[in-house]
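Design a sequence for this backbone.
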């Protein structure tokens, strides 16, 4: 029986100086067991993110993104904070200012139409921040996405090869935030027991009232005391 013939295959690979060079494939050898977890937890898991094949970063430790070809990215967690790569706003922006609203609307519609792993509707809502908050400070996302009324969450992983996952890199995790919070208030004139539902905007006026401080006229909400 003849010995197996070695195939003289070549592929092109990027070099450190960002050129493409031919690379001759060597004979097979043993490799460590395949990594079963996603690479890093930097949350660039939204649609339209393009990896940079010429980056010199280690994919196990750092995310390498080709920003010049990337339209949007999402920072995950319990809900998704989605950012568009807007020209003139981001260092390597790709979305023109006059195309911003069209792209944002397209992403909003596609995310809200996204169903569960069987294609069933789950009631995802993508909010424009200006529709929720009259004043916006800091680094404001372009969309705030609540998947499945918070019965689904936005993961902070890449490399899963699927839209839906049922555990993160540490195992199963079905915990999420709820829409409603809770408060405990002990103060003069406040009756013991469960009280009525109040707005989050009422917390700051309550704290100022307890401290004996005046309420700014522009402040929203009402004191609980």
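Sequence:
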């Amino acid at each position: 029986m003849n010995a197996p013939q070695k195939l003289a295959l070549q592929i092109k690979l990027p070099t450190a100086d960002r050129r493409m060079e031919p690379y001759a494939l060597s004979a097979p050898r043993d490799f460590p067991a395949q990594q079963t977890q996603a690479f890093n937890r930097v949350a660039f898991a939204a649609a339209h993110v393009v990896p940079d094949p010429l980056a010199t970063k280690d994919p196990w430790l750092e995310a390498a993104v080709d920003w010049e070809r990337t339209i949007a990215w999402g920072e995950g967690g319990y809900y998704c904070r989605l950012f568009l790569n807007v020209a003139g706003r981001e260092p390597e922006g790709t979305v023109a200012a006059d195309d911003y609203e069209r792209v944002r609307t397209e992403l909003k519609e596609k995310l809200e139409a996204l169903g569960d792993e069987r294609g069933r509707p789950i009631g995802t809502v993508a909010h424009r921040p200006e529709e929720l908050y009259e004043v916006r400070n800091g680094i404001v996302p372009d969309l705030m996405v609540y998947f499945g009324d918070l019965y689904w969450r936005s993961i902070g992983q890449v490399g899963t090869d699927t839209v839906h996952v049922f555990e993160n890199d540490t195992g199963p995790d079905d915990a999420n935030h709820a829409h409603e919070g809770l408060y405990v208030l002990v103060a003069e004139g406040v009756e013991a027991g469960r009280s009525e539902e109040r707005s989050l905007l009422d917390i700051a006026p309550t704290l100022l009232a307890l401290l004996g401080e005046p309420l700014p006229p522009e402040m929203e909400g009402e004191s609980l005391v």
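Residues 1-6, 37-47 have pLDDT under 50 and may be disordered.
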